[in-house]
Amino acid sequence: MITVPKHRLHKSVIPQKYFLTIVPILDPGFEDVLGAQWEAPGSVLVNAFAAKATKTITLHAKNITIHNVTVIHKSEVIPVRNVSQHDRFSFMKIHLSQSLIPGDLYLINISFTSYVSEVLNGLFRSSYTNEDTGEQEWFAATHMEALHARQMFPCFDEPNLKAVMQAKIGRREDYVALFNTESTGNETMQGVDGWVWETFAPTVQMSTYLTAMIVAKFQYSEAPGKLLPETRVRTYAPSHYIKQGAAVYSAEVAERILSTYGEYFKEKYPMKKFDCVAVPSFLYGAMENYGLSIFRETLLLHFNHSTESKRYIVTNVISHELGHQWFGNLVSPEWWTNLWLSEGLTKFLEYIGMNATIPEFEPWDIFISESLQLGLRLDADPRTSHSLKIDEDAWLMKNEMEWFDDIAYKKGGSLIRMMQGFLSEPVMRKGLSRYLARMKYKSAVQDDLFADCDKEGQLAHKLPENTTLKDVMSGWTLQAGFPLLRAKLNGENNVTVSQEKYISIRGSGSERKMRWFIPVSIATARHPNFDPEPEFWIRNNETSVELRLPANSWLILNAGNTEYIPIQNALNLTKYMKDHAETEQVVWTSLLSMMKTAFKLFKETDDEFTPLKKYMLPRIEKAIQATGGFDAIKMNSTGMPVLRHAQLLDWACNLYSRGCIQYAMELVKSWKNTGQLTVPKDFQTVIFSAAVASDSSGEIFDFIKQQYKTAEDTLKDQLLTALSHSQDTGRIKSLLNEITKRDLLGDNSEALVLLQHLGSNAKAADITLQYFIENFATIINHFGGINPIVVAANAMAPHLKSLSGLFFIDQLVQLNTELFKTSLAPAVSRIRANIMWFDDFGEDMLEFFEQNSIYQRDFYKRRV
Ligand SMILES: [Zn+2]
After folding, report:
1. Is there a domain that residue 785 lies in?
2. Residue 343 marked ligand-binding
3. CA of 567 relative to ligand 1 center, distance in Å
4. What whole-number distance in Å separates Cα of residue 52 and Cα of residue 9?
5. 321 an active-site residue?
6. 3-class secondary structure, 764
7. Where are the beta strands (DSSP E) in 491-570?
8. What is the extent of the structural domain holding 501?
9. Final residue of a domain: which of 192, 216, 240?
10. Domain co-membership, 605 together with 662
11. pLDDT of residue 291
């Protein structure tokens, strides 16, 4: 017998269909007819069948007032003895006077009042200012993942208990109401002036956490509809954004990506409409609700003046949420311990979506720095690593949302990409299609995924003999961490390739005996092929394998760069380097994002910055020259070249490249003299900042400051960032003096933005903290609290590893221990972590920079 964990439902009652009626009340004045402002009175009728004989129906409800419960069996009311609510796991238990009959259908009708809450989950409220009218507008939205549907209506709130959802939403006439499915019409609400009932079509079988609702004064842009004639695709947003055309791009892209995924898997998106909604406040980036995905507005709207990097991010987030319509929505994880089946698969799918819509960004190249390396980083540290398939007891120990981390997304996505590496793209695609076809409208565990992909892998002979895909993949998903491969030359031509667990911090070697089943792709001088197809496997009962290398050859392991492993000691790399250009772009993307932590912390003091600069700058400048020089990218260029160039310029200027600074100065001076701004949008921040940082006279600083006062919103952030880059103590102080005035900064929110930017300027850290201490009372008075200090401290913490920062923060805490007790703790622990990180790696890295000649395989990848 399988025991059910205490926090899970026993599945003695299985829901088939919900009919939800609800009225979110956003305005006062309806107390007598509907209810008070921020209440959401409603009822839910659940069709459910009994799977076991039980006298108790257990479902979920949280922060809901229950008014009445009736249970009906074949038109007869079963007396309810009482209803109890249990806090810890939000169980709502309906105790009946007689036992349910297994196999029979029951109707459970519950009337309740839930709440349009302030916290941004469940059914929640938020507001924005309508830019056309200046009015504050309230709206209601939802976020149910992972355990919040139970806050809007009583339900069986587990992803495996899928049912059909239907809804009737009460709203005022001047609002729109949206649900997972399309509206089927509306009618006047009897007895309540100016209100209507809007009814919605039934959904497909779905999990409760994907339920969604919006009541708002939003408008929409609609996709052309040519690619997906059966599905109407729209993007909703506050009306002033729609007028600016800011939702046109996302509606079009959403339609293209929905049709791409449908064709890719031969499994169409199943509902008649798909809406993306841009809301001004959202706790997460976006949420993939079935048919009604909700996005933080900055991640969905695209303006004429948006940068290329913004276009990439918007497309990336849409690709992700739409990918979930298949992985997560059509096939859901059985329970949250398998959440990587939703997030990891979708992380992988994102790049297929982007490849189809924005190939100019070369998305699969970006995968390496954006996903693979970040997954490895978290997974390498025993303090943050955990198995991809989450242990049930461990899951209970943390807040359920903390498990939505880089392991679930980026390790998950990288392992799917590794599977595609050894199975090949066509086989992987067939495997995933098989999984979708078999499991659709159901929920899955990871073995379901492995079983379907295994069938295709065996047919195509892509797996080692007598081995299933589960044999290969279980070690990767059930064990925390990943292996490190080492290649060692024995004599002339024999190579030993060995595996051990990779651990990034010192003194934790006990787990090094763990083993994985590893596909190894190789390239040699004689066979310089960089296909991801494995040349051989290291099995999970082997520590190493022996290879014979042709004379005078080099060897590169993980040649396809698809494996979820770092490689040490690739052999004779200098030989390889001589044959190949060092300027390949993807090398830079990967290398530079890996160097970010080092850069932030090394920049604090000159002793450490100089070796880093000496190592990095010649390489960066060489890469810039190879792509056509500092001014290679002109206005209106698009795609990956723009992003790469922006990244290279950013590094070059931050490393005080003379060429870069000269280029920046010329551009800003030309703007100053001619009044014409000719800096491409993606480079504005870096160019303005470099000019301000190296401005000795203060002339540029004053010019940028003047521009800021009159600039349009679309330029303000770049200018303020630039000002905050000043390296001049006097000018930094003058900026700080502005935060409590209205001379430069329009309002307090601009002051907070300035403090955030100043945080990344190492030169400004001590000056800023000192300023806070000296002007403590004025700041608290002006801002009505300590928020600006906390914002600044959090922004500077990632850049600090010296004790002076901690010293100043400690002084602040002593000014008002009560206020600061918890709010500065994250900044303090971040600085302490930086100090530890530097103790662990600082010396080695400095030595590496100084030696300047070691070149790691990790940094190297052929463009594919
Ligand atoms: Zn996701």
Report:
1. yes
2. yes
3. 29
4. 13
5. yes
6. helix
7. 494-501, 518-520, 522-524, 536-538, 544-548, 555-557, 567-568
8. 487-565
9. 216
10. yes
11. 98
